[in-house]
Recover the amino acids of this structure.
């Protein structure tokens, strides 16, 4: 049996990869934030973890992998930007998302998935499939059963509630030793909300890599 060489880019705490069958693959996770990369390593000690820029890592190393999953930052694409339109914090959408889609479509010969939230604008490249609040661009089209649309906990966007952290941990099956934060973000829930639900990650992984569904 061939062991697949997999890149998990913008890995966060690895919600998408929690249920991947590691007897069938070797995973390299790339995460920019050292604190979050450290948590990932504790959760998945068998994976190789690199602290670095996933966008540049993809450009330099994409030929080394059989399967690539990338979840570029979603904050500049989310519909919450509509709430910021009168604030100085309003940002241009980060076009690295579309750079990576075009790059993989054109140059990569393996299997790949790029995930992001449904944006506040009409997507410049139509997603290959949609699950709940997530768009997926991929080398493969996947039929999604209705039962896979995992329902987010009530009050999903609540920021600072310790109760909400526990609800998100239960929902994901991922438990943190202590709250962690992205950069200057003051929400202890953000790192959990950023996760693709493990059951969705597992389903997509198995369909695309040919694993048991």
């Amino acid at each position: 049996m061939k062991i697949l060489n997999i890149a998990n880019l913008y890995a966060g705490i690895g919600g998408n990869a929690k249920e991947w069958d590691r007897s069938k693959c070797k995973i390299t996770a790339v995460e920019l934030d050292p604190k979050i990369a450290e948590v990932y390593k504790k959760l998945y000690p068998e994976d190789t973890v690199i602290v670095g820029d996933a966008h540049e890592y993809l450009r330099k190393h994409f030929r080394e992998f059989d399967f690539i999953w990338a979840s570029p930052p979603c904050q500049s694409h989310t519909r919450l930007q509509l709430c910021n339109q009168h604030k100085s914090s309003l940002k241009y959408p980060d076009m690295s998302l579309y750079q990576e889609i075009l790059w993989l479509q054109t140059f990569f010969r393996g299997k790949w998935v790029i995930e992001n939230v449904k944006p506040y604008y009409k997507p410049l490249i139509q997603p290959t499939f949609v699950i709940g609040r997530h768009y997926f661009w991929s080398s493969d089209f996947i039929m999604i059963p209705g039962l896979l649309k995992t329902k987010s906990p009530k009050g999903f966007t609540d920021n600072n509630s310790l109760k909400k952290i526990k609800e998100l941990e239960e929902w994901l099956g991922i438990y943190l030793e202590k709250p962690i934060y992205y950069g200057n973000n003051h929400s202890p829930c953000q790192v959990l909300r950023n996760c693709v639900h493990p059951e969705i990650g597992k389903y997509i992984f198995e369909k695309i890599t040919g694993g048991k569904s």
